[in-house]
Specification:
This protein is α/β, with parallel strands linked by helices and about 375 residues long. The chain has two domains: about 15-30 and about 270-365, Alpha-Beta Complex (Aspartate Aminotransferase, domain 1); about 35-265, 3-Layer(aba) Sandwich (Aspartate Aminotransferase, domain 2), CATH 3.40.640.10. It is built from twelve helices and 13 strands. β4, α4 and β5 form a beta-alpha-beta unit.
Amino acid sequence: MKLAASGWPSPKTVIVDGQPLLAFAGCNYLGLAHHPRVVTALRAAAERYGVASNGSRSTTGTTDAHVALEVALARFLGTAAAAVVSSGTLANFAACEALAVERPAALLDERAHSSLGQATRVAGLSPEPFAHRDVRDFAIRARRLSSVDASRSLLVLTDGVFAANGALTPVEELLAAMPAGGVLLVDDSHGLGVIGTDGRGSTPAEVGSSLVVTASLGKALGCGGGVVAGSRDVVERVSQSLSFRGGTPIAPALARAACVALEIARGDTELRCRLHDNVRALRSVFNELGLPLAAGETPIFTVVPRDQSTLEALQLAARQAGLLLPVIEYPGGPAPRYVRIAVNAAHDEVDIERLADVLRLGLQR
């Protein structure tokens, strides 16, 4: 698949090999990557700062744009502080590097994003998996680890919204079952801007020292970079980590654009309402077709065809109808190959019905 240089003319269209397609793909959930205010902010800031940071955060790479974005993210997420890094994956590495200082025991949701598992191992931890979204299994394992060595704290890692199928983690239940002194790290890349009060994500309104949030700014915010948000102590340790100090940060212009995107995500309730209207419409289609649905109304839908021929039929039906439905091969997914469908705020009723027709046709062949 080759996207043309001008292949993203809107949040819902792409040009693939010269053919314009209606896309149900990617993560631009609010369409902010194309929002006029965000694009204008990026252009204006590029004129002021240039197109790169030209230095690491520990040398000359920190600008007022980065600091402003960190303040805005901390305020939005309800945390004491935040640190911006160059990607969501690096945010997980920086957070784990900071949290591993105390050498805690670690528990990891078995379907958590691969970067969380990699980050714990690089930080010198050996995470034990617990059953996917299973609070009871988590509680049993947490009690056992605490009883083995009461002197060690516990670090628990999970996605807030799972990228493969949109399933929600019961964050508050995990926090309630957490042993004293434990910390829950939630990668909320696919929740930030999409769910929760004012789009704050999957984490509760009151964020204490027992919760650390990481996220990509390239999903609902449509920009780029990543963030670690939590207590001042944790963020201070993040700022001393090699992951933070050694990398070139996002361009200042992108940081300015992300500030505007964050403001829109929080304040434009109509945008979020359109997204959730589309989510509910597509959930109705999935119910009609008897397709499995994840818990929670998120913009991510998964189709696992019964065999390879059905998968190919669905792909063919989509392409013939002018739709892009990507086939995904990604760790933690529901199958080795599956179709990941994402709706966004720019889709409308006609688009959803076109998708419904393709699903009916492709899955019944």
